[in-house]
Specification:
The complex is a heterodimer of chains A (286) and B (190). With 286 residues, chain A is mainly alpha-helical. Chain A contains eight helices and two strands; from the N terminus they run αααααααββα. The radius of gyration of chain A is 19 Å and the shape is globular. Chain A starts with 10 loop residues before the first helix and ends with a helix. Chain B is α+β, with helices and mostly antiparallel strands and 190 residues long. Chain B folds into two domains: 36 residues; 149 residues, Protein Transport Mog1p, Chain A, CATH 3.40.1000. Chains A and B meet through helix 4 and helix 7 of A and helix 1 of B.
Chain lengths: 286, 190
């Protein structure tokens, strides 16, 4: 069992997570307001480039907070960026081809509620959460730099945001650009969701490395993250659908953003609570 | 990134994660297959078959007795058609195939026959015609370029009538959907 530094709450990690949620909502509000006020006219190529730029913004925001706040409790920046890049590469090379081309989820996933939930957990959830786990497990996990349980949350969040960046870029590219207002909401939702699910995996990874956990511990972590992933996607589909008319279905993307923000807050709060409980237990044991 | 060797417990945990993921993906595949092969019973004019559940059943036109398509597909919706045509005495399946081919050449854009031959389909002799065309139905709701569609007809002779079972799918989806169409053919009784 590797030696861990004394378990610390590392307040900045949680501050970064909460700041990410708040700043993404502010960012979405600004872009939405600017889009409505200016109604910019884009050529197809500038729309595509703007979309790709916006797809990267959520990850850049988190990394910025991380860099600024990590001065007091430094984590090697290139490792964080490296795990971010591995998460992105795994998404592009394995995750999306497997989900879209092999499983072809768009052809059957929305057949009925049970299928949406089951398929969302078993296929989309497990593929995404396993790859984000792999991005950390097979890179930084055995490094000397992964030296305390909360590092799991940092690196898994980086992997999740890398995954989210690629999902968002693929969405923009496959649509030849996106409507700025609705598009930016979707990007924020994907980033918040992926970062939150990764937080679950990261918490389990951190404890798996430094505490004598049972053999089922890490599978349980991946399964919980996959279940959260599948349930969130189903729930988001239910929440944003506001009605069906002769001209098609109508959606309210803001409700999806609100749901993602609440879920991200809840998951971050739960993980923070678990870390605090572990600290108290460790202190009591002394 | 420097690494250290894993402990035995760590390796077991890692293998367990992979095993759980593989089991989940296999269960996901089973879920996909069960949805894709769901079917409902069809019966008309003494002909029965199991057609895909959840597809749109269009009002049959002319000599069609079944026209069903997968409207959930974003591009061209995979389509199954059954046609029952009266036969003059001595007419062969190859002659019916020629008539159908002429009709398709008039109605479908860029229609080309790729192959035609006599085959045995689940114990019944049939004439198979494989072809390709470009989807040309005006559709204001699709902003995509028209799809290249591959089609196959199986023509069966049954007493005083011929039955043509047709499968149309987007070129990229054709092979993937062929297995399901074969299930439909297998279920066909007349």
């Amino acid at each position: 069992m590797p030696e861990s530094k004394p378990l610390r709450e590392r307040a900045h990690i949680w501050r970064d997570e909460f700041l990410l949620i708040a700043s993404l909502i502010v960012f979405v509000g600004i872009v939405y307001a600017l889009d409505n006020a200016l109604q910019p006219a884009f050529t197809p190529s500038t729309l595509l480039l703007t979309g790709v730029f916006l797809a990267l913004v959520p990850s850049v925001i988190w990394l910025m907070f991380f860099y600024v706040q990590d001065r007091l409790e430094p984590e090697p920046k290139h490792f964080v960026l490296g795990v971010f890049a591995i998460g992105a590469l795994l998404a592009a090379a394995i995750g999306m081809p497997l989900v879209e081309n092999v499983y072809r989820v768009s052809h059957w996933l929305y057949a009925d509620t049970v299928t949406t939930i089951l398929g969302g957990i078993l296929v989309v959830g497990f593929v995404q959460e396993f790859l984000k786990y792999a991005a950390v497990r097979y890179s930084i996990y055995h490094s000397e730099e992964f030296d305390e349980p909360t590092d799991g949350v940092i690196y898994a969040t980086a992997a999740g945001l890398g995954y989210a960046a690629v999902l968002n870029i693929q969405f923009v590219v496959s649509n030849g650009g996106v409507d700025l207002g609705a598009g930016v909401i979707r990007m924020a939702v994907v980033a918040l969701a992926q970062a939150s699910f990764s937080g679950i995996t990261g918490y389990f990874l951190g404890r798996a490395k430094f505490e004598s956990e049972k053999i089922w511990w890490m599978p349980l972590g991946i399964t919980l993250a996959a279940v959260a992933n599948g349930l969130f996607n189903w729930l988001r589909g239910r929440v944003v659908q506001t009605g069906v008319s002769l001209s098609g279905g109508s959606v309210n993307s803001w409700l999806g953003l609100a749901l993602a923000a609440v879920m991200a807050l809840a998951i971050t709060g739960i993980i923070l609570g678990l870390v605090r409980r572990s600290i108290r237990s460790a202190q009591a044991a002394k | 990134m420097s690494t250290r060797n894993s402990s035995l417990g760590d390796r077991f945990a890692e293998i367990t994660v992979i095993a759980v993921t593989v089991v989940a993906l296999l269960a996901g595949w089973a879920c996909k297959t069960s949805v894709e092969t769901r079917s409902i019973a069809f019966e008309a004019d003494g002909i029965t078959a199991q057609t895909p559940a959840g597809w749109l059943q269009a009002e049959p036109a002319g000599d069609e007795i079944l026209h069903t398509n997968d409207f959930s597909n974003a591009g061209f919706g995979t389509t199954y058609i059954l046609r029952k045509m009266p036969l003059a005495e001595g007419t062969t399946a190859a002659q019916i195939a020629s008539l159908l081919t002429l009709e398709r050449a008039q109605n479908l854009t860029a229609f080309r026959v790729l192959e035609q031959r006599e085959v045995t389909v689940y114990g019944r002799t049939a004439y198979e015609v494989t072809y390709v065309f470009v989807e040309s139905n005006p559709d204001l709701t699709h902003a995509d370029i028209p799809s290249v569609v591959r089609g196959v007809d199986y023509i069966f002779i049954n007493g005083d009538h011929a039955l043509a079972a047709t499968y149309w799918a987007e070129e990229n989806d054709f092979e993937m959907g062929l297995g399901r169409f074969h299930l439909f053919l297998e279920s066909l009784t007349f």
